Each structure stands twice: as C-alpha cells, then as structure tokens.
Q: What sequence folds into this?
C-alpha cells in the first residue's frame, strides 16, 4: 500500500556507507537499509578496471574487474589481492621514507578492499546464486586475511615510525598515519599476547552474535491470524495470505452442514514493512493491536543474543581501558565521550518534549472524537493510523496523486539537473561493457566536468526484485586516491534501492518518501564522487561516524523544496509540472508530527547509548531499560511483553553510534539555512559545498570542515568534545529553546 510521508515507525532506516574506522584494513561502512545491515569496507585496485566509453567496448567482468567474468573468478580475485598485498608488505619492510610507507599502506588497503567491496555488493544484489555463493566465500577468505593484516606487528611498527619521525610534510599524510595507528590499536595490536587473544576471540563471538541476531529477524518475523477476512481492508490484501478455519457450531444439524463450510481469514506476517502498512491502514483497532504486539515481540531468541552482545562489547572496552563500550566507540568521533553524547541527547529530549506532548494530545483528542470515546487512551498501535488520517484530512493529500508526479525516470533526471545546477557537471548515461552488469535494470553513469573530465562513476540499481538486498544503500566499490602526480584513481559507487510499483523502470512511480530516500542516498554518492583525497582511506564517506550522515541529510532538503521539484517532477501522463500548492500541502503534512518523530529518534539513540553504556553490577534486562527510557522521554506507553529492541539492527552496526543521525540532522539544518536555502540551485551554493566540504572526505578535521563551510553557529565545544548547534533545527521545527 502507498502512503504519504515516510514510514513512521522506523524513519531512519537508511544504511549509508559510512561507519567508524575500526581497523586499518577493514573500515566497516554502513550501507543501506534499516534501511538494514551495512557493508562496504573500502578500496579497490587499479588493475583490471575499464571505464572506456568508446564504441569498441571490451568484454570485462562485474564492476569492470576482469577476474569477475565468472563466479569462480572471485577465487582468483582473492588470490591476487593476497599476493599483491604480500609484495607490498615486503616492500614496506625495506622502505625508509615515511611518506612511501603511508602511500603503500593505503595501496594495501585499496587492494584488499576491492575484493571486500565487490563481494559485498555482489552477495546482496546478484540474481545468480552461484555468484552470490562465490562472493560469500571470497568475503570469508578475505576477512581471514584482514585479520592477519590487522595483527601484523611489522606494519604497525612501520606506521608508528612514520607517525613519530616528523618527516611527513603534508597534513593529510600526517592524519593518515595517525588514523592508521589508531585503527590498528582499536583491534588491540598494542596489547599483551593474552589480552590480544581474548580480544580476537571476542571479536569473532561478536561477529557470530550479529549474524545470529540478523538471521533470527528473518527466520522469525512473527504472524497473527485475523478472522473474519472483512477486518482487513482491500488495499492490504496484497500483503496478507488467505487462511481458512472450520465454522464453529452448536447444534448437531448445523454441525453436519458446516463440515464443508470454512471461514476465511488472513494471516499477517509481521515483518517490519508489512507491520508498518497494517498500522497505517487497518481501521480495526484490534487488528492493529494484535499486529503491533506480535511484531514487537519477535524474535524472542534475540533477547539472549543481545545480552551476550552487550556483555562481549563491554568486555572488549574494558580490556582496551574504557569504562564502557559506548565510551570506546564514541572516543574517535567528534563527540569524543559518552558524557558529551548523553548531555546532547538529554538536551534534545528536554527541548522537544513540550511540542511532542502537544502533538500527543492532538492525536489523542482526534482519536476520541473519531471513536466517540471521551476518555479513550492513545495506544502505541494508534499512532500511524490516526496521524495518517489527520494529515490526509488537514491537507487533502492522496499518496497516489503525489506519486503520479514522480515517475522514476523523471526522478533520475532530477538528480542530473541538481548536479548540473550546483556543480556545473553532467551525468552521462554510458554503456555497460559485456559482463560488467549484474542485472538488466542496472544503469551506469559518469559524472563529467567540462574542464576536469570524468570525476567518477555511478551504478544505479533501483528496482525491487526477489532475492535482492531489501533496503536502500550506497555501496562504495572503489575509493578515490592519488596514484601519481598526474594520475588519479576515480571513485566508483553503486546506489541500490528497492522501489516498487513496477519492475519496468519506465512506469515505476515513487511515493514522495521514496524520492526523499533517493536524494538521501544520492547525498552519500556525491560525497564519494566529488571527493579528491590523496588516500582512499579518507575517500568520500570515510569520515568519522558523527559526520557521515550530514551530506545525505542535507540533500533530503532538496527533495522538499519547490524550486528543485519543479525542475523534474512532472505528471506521468500529462507532463504537468507538480503544482506548488500540492508541494505546500506535502510540506505542511511533514511538519504536523515532526516533534514526535524527532522524539522517537532521540529515544532510539538513548536506548543505544544506555545499552552499551556503563553496566550496573547486577545486570538489568534490556526490556526494562527500554521501558524505563520510553516512560521517561515520551508520553507513549510501553506495552508489557513487547521487546522492540530485538529487531533494532542498528544496535549491530551503529552500536553506540545511532546518535550520529541526530548530529547530522542538526548540521544539515544549519547548512541548509545558512548556505543553501536562499538559492539552493546556484553554482555559488554548489561551489561552497564542493570545495569546503565534499571534496575533502575524511582528510580534514571534521570541525574545521563544518566551520569552514558555515562559519560560526554550526557546532559547540562541550567538555572536550563537539556537539551540534541546535538553533537552526529548533527554528525549523518551531521548538522552544531552553
């Protein structure tokens, strides 16, 4: 079913390619859904990559890698990466130049990550099971090799020498040496043998627990059986499965008659997207309640998995000398300590509470009026249904009318218009070489500058299909890096989405929240494609975690601005430009319950920080932690017996890092208001974004980047860390500042 606006239960569901640097050769990146678990380490080799656009296109393999013409090619791909890395390790042992040590370390990372990234993208998107299996095997093999690299003392000692000898003259090289050492030490290489063995074992355990947590979500989505069938509205029938039961009977005669009579009902499998639709569209409160309770009570097995994950991460943090996993995870970021994060979240919670409470009362009063129950309570399963009704009635919005202005091909045109207006660059569709693509839906584009030439390459795989990664993601395939004075390795990325409507991209039409998602992911892609760092270690989205979501959040604003929308949003049959009044209604509906949505994200971030924070002497179960936080920071009830956190995948990949979405929301709000809002499509706006922010990736200090871009008023220094200035977000949402 379609709806206006983003799904209310789990709005921040994008996984984006950018999690914290964890180890020098395996920098985990968020790519995609929950928009769900994340991928992409970082790099790629210069060998075997074709970008020719001449008519004589040679056969190649997946993503332009000659090795990947067949599934078995992944084996040779891994072999060559290991062989080449071995040569580079030997080379480092005989090199005295600090600059050359760092350059070679980056090449090792690039070589190995080419396999990692290709395998990740392949195993999540390729329709051929044989390719997927070989990619899985390659991923396991290369990860074993990564462990060897990350515990290699000769490499670690070479990095320490390069960092300490004072001969690195370029700031980016100094920064690279520093972060390579820090990343090594996050893996425990500096510990005594006994402690390092324990950390290695705990990391293996954590990987297994994360896999188990994700698998349990798929294996046990939960279900409820609803009778009679009339309880489920017709526009949800495509999401549910018909079931039948014998009719109940009292008399012997009617029992005989009813032997052949079956009552029809529906089974609702309560996986997240179906649950979201049922909560939005089912008018029967009992159906919503049953679905909500069941969907938030599975998988039960993950309660135990989560307890073990918390304990294992806590033990690692303590071995590393930190009082909690949250402290360990936050330390390299702008926030720098859990105390700073918590003070920011508590400030945000206090700030949003009056407006969120006001919205809560408005929804409750609307429900009472609709249901005729003067003293009726507002339940958690009521929120999506009644807020949807209120938005539709207040602004007379119909999601299918909105979607009629967003045919997918027009939305892609919109991205082209955006980059041309902002950066003076063009996206050209270029032919895929035989063997390069993994599906007929895939498009390839080059980002071209009239003076600078090609800046990078983008694959688009936007339609849903069976067996495909179920979310929206930015996958890095290759990071940009300087190879020599005259040669630059261009970045290559893929945007993977699951837009429904039609497998035929010429007729697919997007809901507006899908347009917002496309622009969000495109923000990540531009961060990668416009990056011009010397080292791929810092390319594009390879930044500290609490900066990573800023470009993507900023580009969401472009999906809501009429000056932008009118350049591409046209009716699929009449060609009419989207009416300004319709966009104003969409904007009004978006604002209606914005405080409630913001409060939910603060609540999620508080759960994340608390679960991975300091552990009490007698362990508390996660259910009571979540219930207490919900009571303290929202007006909504906790429903006994539910444990929503057992499906919260961000605890795996963004453990103690979910707050970074809120940092990004604040940074993006300030940047939009101070840099973009006045003239969002001007070359001056684009030049500021590119030269002061996007092109630097992670090569410059994040606070310097933000201050250079916006000036005063984007961040504040607090207790040795950095928090965003919340003024712009407050103004945007009409929140009272304390």
A:
């Amino acid at each position: 079913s379609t709806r206006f606006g983003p799904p209310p239960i789990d709005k921040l569901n994008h996984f984006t390619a950018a999690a914290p640097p964890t180890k020098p050769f395996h920098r985990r990146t968020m790519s995609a859904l929950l928009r769900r678990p994340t991928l992409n380490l970082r790099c790629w080799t210069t060998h075997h990559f074709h970008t020719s656009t001449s008519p004589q296109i040679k056969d190649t393999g997946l993503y332009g890698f000659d090795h990947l013409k067949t599934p078995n090619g992944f084996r040779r791909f891994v072999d060559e990466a290991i062989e080449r890395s071995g040569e580079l390790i030997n080379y480092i042992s005989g090199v005295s130049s600090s600059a050359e040590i760092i350059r070679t370390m980056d090449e090792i990372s690039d070589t190995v990550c080419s396999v990692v990234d290709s395998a990740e993208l392949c195993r999540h998107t390729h329709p051929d099971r044989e390719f997927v299996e070989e990619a899985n095997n390659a991923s396991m093999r290369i990860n074993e090799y990564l462990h060897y690299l990350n515990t290699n003392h000769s490499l670690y000692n070479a990095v320490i020498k390069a960092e300490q000898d004072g001969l690195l003259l370029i700031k980016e090289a100094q920064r690279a040496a520093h972060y390579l050492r820090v990343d090594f030490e996050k893996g425990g290489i500096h510990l005594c043998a006994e402690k390092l063995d324990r950390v290695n074992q705990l990391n293996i355990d954590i990987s297994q627990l994360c896999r188990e947590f994700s698998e349990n979500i798929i294996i046990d989505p939960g279900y409820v059986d609803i009778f009679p069938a009339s309880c489920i509205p017709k526009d949800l029938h495509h999401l549910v499965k018909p079931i039948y039961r014998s009719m109940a009977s009292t008399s012997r005669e009617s029992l005989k008659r009813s032997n052949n009579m079956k009552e029809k009902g529906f089974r609702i499998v309560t996986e997240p997207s179906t649950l979201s639709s049922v909560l939005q569209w089912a008018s029967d409160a009992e159906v919503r309640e049953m679905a909500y309770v069941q969907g938030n009570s599975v998988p039960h097995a993950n309660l135990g998995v989560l307890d073990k994950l918390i304990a294992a991460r806590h033990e690692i943090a303590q071995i590393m000398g930190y009082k909690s996993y949250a402290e360990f995870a936050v330390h390299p970021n702008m926030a720098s300590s859990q105390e700073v994060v918590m003070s920011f979240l508590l400030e945000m919670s206090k700030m949003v509470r009056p407006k969120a409470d006001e919205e809560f009362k408005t929804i409750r009063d609307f429900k009472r009026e609709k249901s005729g129950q003067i003293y009726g309570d507002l339940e958690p399963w009521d929120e999506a249904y009644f807020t949807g009704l209120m938005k539709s009635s207040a602004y007379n919005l119909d999601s299918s009318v909105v979607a009629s202005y967003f045919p997918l091909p027009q939305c892609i045109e919109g991205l082209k218009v955006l980059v041309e207006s902002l950066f003076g660059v063009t996206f050209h569709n270029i032919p895929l070489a035989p063997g390069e693509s993994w599906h007929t839906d895939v498009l390839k584009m080059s980002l071209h500058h009239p003076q600078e030439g090609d800046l990078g390459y983008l694959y688009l795989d936007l339609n849903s299909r069976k067996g495909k990664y179920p979310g929206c993601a930015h996958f890095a395939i290759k990071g940009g890096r300087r190879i020599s004075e005259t040669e630059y390795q261009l970045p290559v990325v893929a945007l993977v989405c699951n837009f429904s409507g039609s497998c035929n991209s010429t007729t697919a039409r997007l809901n507006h929240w899908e347009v917002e998602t496309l622009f969000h992911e495109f923000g990540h892609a531009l961060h990668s494609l416009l990056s011009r760092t010397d080292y791929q270690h810092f390319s594009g989205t390879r930044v500290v975690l609490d900066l990573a979501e800023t470009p993507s959040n900023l580009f969401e604003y472009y999906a809501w601005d009429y000056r932008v929308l009118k350049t591409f949003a046209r009716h699929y049959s009449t060609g009419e430009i989207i009416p300004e009044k319709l966009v104003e209604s969409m904007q009004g509906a978006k604002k209606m319950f914005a405080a409630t949505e913001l409060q939910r994200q603060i609540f999620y971030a508080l759960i994340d920080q608390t679960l991975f924070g300091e552990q009490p002497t007698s362990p508390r179960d996660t259910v009571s932690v979540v219930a207490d936080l919900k009571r303290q920071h929202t007006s909504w009830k906790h429903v006994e017996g539910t444990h929503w956190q057992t499906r919260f995948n961000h605890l795996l990949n963004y453990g103690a890092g979910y707050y970074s979405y809120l940092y990004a929301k604040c940074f993006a709000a300030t940047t939009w208001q101070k840099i973009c809002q006045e003239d969002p499509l001007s070359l001056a706006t684009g030049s500021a974004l590119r030269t002061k922010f996007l092109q630097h990736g992670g090569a410059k200090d994040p606070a310097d980047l933000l201050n250079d871009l916006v000036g005063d008023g984007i961040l504040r220094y607090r207790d040795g860390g950095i928090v965003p200035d919340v003024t712009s977000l407050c103004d945007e949402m009409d929140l009272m500042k304390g």
Summary: The chain is about 50% helix and 10% strand. The first strand starts at residue 14 and ends at 15. Residues 123 and 132 are 4 Å apart (CA to CA). Residues 60-190 form a domain with the Glutathione S-transferase Yfyf (Class Pi); Chain A, domain 2 fold (CATH 1.20.1050.40).
